[in-house]
Automatic annotation (TrEMBL):
This is TIGAR bisphosphatase. One of its GO terms (cellular component) is cytosol. Pfam families: His_Phos_1. One of its GO terms (biological process) is regulation of pentose-phosphate shunt. Keywords: Hydrolase. The gene is Tigar. It comes from Sterrhoptilus dennistouni. InterPro entries: His_Pase_superF_clade-1, His_PPase_superfam, Phosphoglycerate_Mutase.
Length: 243
């Protein structure tokens, strides 16, 4: 949760370093992190391994914090499950006293995602507004923007990002957050924004919490700067092959 702001354990630091090595050849344009210590340390470890972004500023945002669990924070997961059982509810949807509801968490995710979309549109507008400015793809290697699991792309995905001026993305954003929060964010993508999912993804995988330093990759297309209907493709979800 939010109330116990513990640092990473020794295992956590090793996992963060492994994620950094895995993403070391990916050139990010922006990095955002939850302002909780464990996320800050994870983001710093990832950038520390990166070939292109070692000195990039990490922007911390409270909207990326883990779900608030109220009276259950700092206690074993078994206690949360017992509280849910006593209330006659299932654990994932149960809200302990003083905690956030799933709708409140999703609202935070929606607000942050709309902020990212606005950021990307403003970047694109600024780039095209420069007199005589070359296209984004001019003289730049688009390969720096592709992730290590490019073999996971379907033909439709590669055709949409792998040719012409769209080879280089307007923004390639790393977001470091927390398991329960990200599960709600992905739920928002799927149920509200009709995110396209990998064909082999099961319902249990979609509803599961990411492993520590699990990586998910989404391609967001905003046609003509239209913020209300982004086209979202999930390339992979909760990838943990680096662990």
């Amino acid at each position: 949760g939010q109330g116990v702001d513990e640092p990473l354990s020794a295992t956590g630091f090793r996992q963060a370093d492994a994620a950094g090595s895995f993403l070391s050849n990916v050139k990010f344009t922006h990095v955002f992190s939850s302002d909780l210590l464990r996320a800050k340390q994870t983001a710093a470890a990832i950038l520390g391994k990166n070939r292109f972004c070692k000195d990039m500023e990490i922007k911390y945002d409270a909207r990326l914090r883990e779900r608030k669990y109220g009276v259950a924070e700092g206690r074993p997961l078994a206690d949360l499950k017992a509280m849910a059982k006593d209330a006659g509810e299932q654990c994932p949807s149960f809200t302990p006293s003083g905690g956030e509801t799933l709708d409140e968490v999703r609202e935070r995710a929606r607000d942050f995602f709309e902020f990212l979309c606005q950021l990307a549109v403003e970047l694109e507008q600024k780039e095209h507004g420069k007199p005589g400015a070359p296209g984004r793809s001019s003289g730049t290697s688009g390969e720096q923007f592709f992730f290590p699991w490019t073999n996971h792309y379907s033909e439709a995905e590669t055709s949409s990002v792998g040719s012409g001026s769209s080879t280089v993305l307007d923004a390639n954003i790393l977001v470091v957050s927390h398991g329960a929060y990200m599960r709600n964010w992905i739920g928002y993508f799927v149920s509200d924004l009709n995110c396209t999912l990998p064909e082999n993804l099961t319902k249990s995988q979609l509803s599961s919490v990411s492993p520590n330093t699990g990586v998910s990759n989404f391609i967001i297309k905003l046609e003509n700067g239209y913020l209300l209907k982004p086209k979202i493709t999930c390339v992979c979800l909760n990838q943990d092959s680096h662990l």
